Amino acid sequence: MPRxxxxxxxxENFVGEFVELTGDEHHHLTRVLHHKIGDRVTVVDGAGNxxxxxxxxxxxxxxxxxxxxxxxxxxxxxxxxxxLAQAVPKGARxxxxxxxxxxxxxxxxxxxxxxxxxxxxxxxxxxSGKTERWRRLSLAAMKQSCRSVWxxxxxxxxxxxxxxxxxxxxxxxxxxxxxxDILKDLAGQAMPRKAFLMVGPEGGFTEEEIEFxxxxxxxxxxxxxxxxxxxxxxxxxxxxxxAAFGQL
Length: 248
Ligand code: SAM
Fold this sequence. Notes:
The chain is α/β, with parallel strands linked by helices. About 30% of the residues lie in helices and about 25% in strands. The protein has seven helices and 14 strands. Strands 1, 2, 3, 4, 5, 6 and 7 form a seven-stranded mixed beta sheet that branches. Helix 2 (about 95-105) links the parallel strand 8 and strand 9 (about 110-115). Helix 2 (about 95-105) runs parallel beside helix 3 (about 130-145) and helix 2 (about 95-105) runs parallel beside helix 7 (about 230-245). Bound molecules: S-adenosylmethionine (SAM). The site of S-adenosylmethionine has 17 residues, from helix 7.
């Protein structure tokens, strides 16, 4: 695990052998962490490129310039791209899911709206600023956990619309108590490149939703004999899937 501080700069800030930090990242590096010329840091572009051990060569009021030396690909990234479609709980609990699931290696989030959703679509529409907030949280968690890909947070999506996208994944799973341990069945099979995981709200999925998801290609995943809160289930399920393919 790298011990250096991770910073973020968008791909366009990487030019030749240099990368520039501006705005909040520049402020954090200079004013909060008091880094100086000559210090070494890691800068990631959120698309899988990392300038590890970059050297600060210039820092003025607005910009920090870093010599990149080498660019390493996909540092901190699991080989399975896991999308977590998680029912949006009330309050700030989705914040927690985004932060913690980014730390363990989830690569994309879809806030899920289903029959028993705890929030109304109007509460999470783009003008609410929620998706933007979750994107900022996934960025912070990416840096904190020494990853190089910034997990995408999609706009909230209704259950049945989301099921139409299941065919785009190599493996699709819905968390629901069941007798079969599908992860045992999957052991020894080829690792999926793109996996998809759905976790329901406190009221659970309806029978119709479960049936529709299965018909669309989802396998059911049990998380044991205890009923977990929705956000706990999201974390546990993502952990189980990544661990099943040795990607934790
Ligand atoms: N009364 C609901 C039901 O019977 O489905 C309980 C829902 S649970 C609080 C919220 C979500 O977490 C579920 O829809 C499921 O996706 C997931 N979950 C919680 N515990 C689980 C378990 N033991 N196995 C599989 N999924 C679980």
